[in-house]
Specification:
The chain is an alpha+beta fold. The protein is built from 22 helices and 18 strands. The protein folds into five domains: about 90 residues, GIY-YIG endonuclease (3-Layer(aba) Sandwich), CATH 3.40.1440.10; about 140 residues, no CATH class; about 110 residues, Nucleotidyltransferase, domain 5 (2-Layer Sandwich); about 170 residues, UvrC, RNAse H endonuclease domain (Nucleotidyltransferase, domain 5), CATH 3.30.420.340; about 50 residues, 5' to 3' exonuclease, C-terminal subdomain (DNA polymerase, domain 1).
Length: about 625
């Protein structure tokens, strides 16, 4: 043991704090908290009877060459400090939660005159009601559609609400809205639907059913048959859809249920979101190279998960106890402003919830393991088929889109572990090439990409794929050699095969002058070219490797076309506005940003246009006059 570490160990206080274990370069490789710094850290370095016997300690300590610590006043402060330091330093032996996004929820503000259901990622104490969170955007949209079917609240912007004062939109005729915009329902009647939605949020399903049936009977007695039909339809929809929901308890308290599954150093976590007595969604997280025991792993995971700006429920159910669980509960209560319980169930329905979460985590682990194995097999197949130097875990593909050289753009898409990584997609507006010269355009896009290779977010992939044949491959090869990257990545190009001609009857071949062999020609498969080889590789047209590379190429093409269309639309928009006096470059930009299209401006009212910064009432009236004549 080095003398510096010995000095630190002898001077350790017996107080709560956070410790940092470092490697020989001084880089922090693990951050932990301790109720007693002296006891915890000495157990790591002690030999003999006081030695820490946990199996992961030797695995960790083999890289430890340095030690530092921070003292805190109590365990709660240590928990907060540990969480912030892990997030900042990202030590390789800690659980690292890469998913830092906040999940979306549904929001309903009863204080509005005619409340509507909206999406939000911020949950604040503003008097509104929130339902969620939803880890899946699809689950959230499905729930929102269901709520609108049962409770016909409006689903429009304030601008659209004002524009339909004379006639309601299509949602009214589809029975998805009561038409408050056109005065077809009063505030009191609309408020009833809002109250029913609030009951749904709280999980009071039986109470809603009783209320709707009571209202239906009353409306029928008073010969308000349209109202009675509405209540009847709501009741049927509730009976149909809520019967398939997973009701987990009569306890309507919002709760999260945490499950995990582990094999060696790989761990899968699942969190079930239970709201109003029903599980509405789940989130899952995978970790590899986890050295710590289950208790420490769960504590670290929960600290990072709830340390972000997420919704914190009234109760969090966990499968096993961990050190500092009471302190963790106090910390969450302080963040939320209300009491938050962290419990380990021993009996009752909570045990069944934990069993459900554990079962989901095991299923998720095995499904992802099989998926990873399939991905690995595919990447190995590509490596072997293309004779690559490394496994193509990361692949970037480039494409060019233009119409006779006009508005030329380049696209770059990136796939990692066989999946698109959209946050690293890049767009290039071609600046130095005039006329239809695809080779020169490709050269510019590639050069601009590779010149940023050492910047964060622009890391080089294992394989560069370009859309085209030998010519495009020569271009990328030239750029790579020019910048000295030839030994850091592999190259390939993919050229689209010829399509099959229409079959021609033999008696017409002479007239059409079509060679007999050409008539029977099948669709040629896409061709893959690699440097140092004249002819394309002989991949079967149904091989998984070729199909996957075609998928990447098609995604690059889609991305380029989308960007090109956007620029064309913008130019057409600006061209149409150029002819209108009083609409200069600055106003065109604001109008484009706010309305997006000319038709959007045509539909807008003078008041809406005037409300935009920089638009006077005179300019708005002139704009509407010219569009309407």
């Amino acid at each position: 043991m080095e003398s510096k570490i010995k000095e630190v160990l002898y001077s350790l206080p017996s107080s709560p704090g956070v410790y940092l274990l470092k490697d020989k370069r001084g880089k922090t490789i693990y951050i932990g908290k301790a109720k007693n710094l002296r006891t915890r850290l000495r157990s790591y370095f002690q030999q003999g009877i006081e030695k820490d016997l946990r199996p992961q300690i030797p695995y960790l300590m083999q890289d430890v060459e340095g030690l530092d610590y921070l003292v805190t006043t109590d365990e709660r402060e240590a928990l907060i400090l540990e969480n912030s330091l892990i997030k900042k330093s990202k030590p390789r032996y800690n659980i690292l939660l890469k998913d830092d996004k906040t999940y979306a929820s549904l929001r309903l503000d009863p204080r509005e005159t005619f409340p509507k259901l909206t999406y939000t990622r911020r949950i604040v104490k503003d008097g509104a009601m929130y339902f969620g969170p939803f880890a899946s955007g699809q689950a959230m949209r499905q729930t929102k559609r269901l709520i609108h079917k049962i409770f016909p609240l409006r689903d429009c912007s304030e601008g659209k609400f004002k524009r339909h004062a004379d006639r309601p939109c299509l949602n009214y005729y589809m029975k998805l809205c009561l038409g408050p915009c056109a005065g077809l329902v009063d505030q009191k009647k609309y408020g009833e639907v809002v109250d029913q939605t609030k009951m749904f949020f709280k999980g009071e399903r039986k109470e809603i059913m009783k209320l709707l049936k009571k209202n239906m009977d009353k409306a029928s007695e008073e010969m308000r048959y349209e109202d009675a039909a509405l209540y009847r339809d709501q009741t049927k929809l509730l009976e149909k859809h809520l019967g398939v929901q997973l009701h987990v308890s009569a306890n309507l308290l919002d709760k999260d249920i945490v499950g995990f599954y582990r094999e060696n150093h790989s761990v899968e976590f699942v969190i079930l979101f239970s709201r109003g007595g029903a599980i509405i969604d789940k989130a899952d997280y995978s970790f590899e190279k986890v050295a710590w025991e289950n208790e420490e792993t769960i504590r670290e995971f929960l600290g990072q998960f709830y340390g972000l700006a997420r919704f914190i429920p009234k109760e969090i159910i966990v499968p096993i106890r961990f050190e500092g669980m009471e302190v963790f509960s106090e910390w969450l209560s302080e963040k939320q402003g209300t009491k938050v319980k962290v419990t380990v169930p021993e009996r009752g329905y909570r045990v069944k919830l934990i069993e459900l979460a554990m079962k989901n985590s095991e299923e998720g682990f095995k499904r992802k393991f099989a998926e990873k194995q399939n991905q690995l097999d595919l990447l190995k197949g590509i490596k072997d088929s293309l004779s690559l130097s490394t496994l193509p875990v990361s692949i970037e593909c480039f494409d060019i889109s233009n119409i006779q050289g006009n508005l030329a753009v380049g696209s770059m898409v990136r796939f990692e572990n066989c999946k698109p990584l959209k946050k690293k997609y890049k767009k290039f507006k071609i600046k130095t090439v005039s006329g239809a010269n695809d080779y020169a355009m490709m050269h510019e896009a590639l050069l601009r990409r590779f010149k940023r290779a050492d910047q964060e977010g622009w890391e080089l992939p294992n394989l560069i794929l370009v859309d085209g044949g030998k010519g495009q491959l020569n271009i990328v090869n030239e750029v790579v050699n020019e910048l000295g990257f030839s030994d850091r990545l592999d190259l390939a190009s993919i050229a689209k095969g010829r399509e099959k001609p229409y079959p021609v009857h033999s008696e017409f071949r002479r007239v059409k002058r079509i060679h007999p062999d050409e008539a029977e020609l099948e669709n040629e498969r896409d061709k893959i070219y690699v440097p140092g080889r004249m002819n394309p590789l002989s991949l079967s047209k149904n091989s998984q490797e070729l199909l996957f590379l075609m998928k990447i190429r098609d995604e690059a093409h889609r991305f380029a076309i989308t960007y090109h269309k956007k620029l064309r639309t913008k130019r057409a928009f600006e061209s149409e506005l150029d002819s209108i006096p009083g609409i200069g470059k600055k106003r065109r930009k604001v109008l484009l940003k706010y309305f997006g299209t000319v038709s959007g401006i045509k539909e807008a009212s003078i008041e809406e246009i005037t409300s935009i910064p920089g638009m006077s009432k005179t300019a708005a009236e002139k704009l509407k006059h010219l569009f309407n004549h």
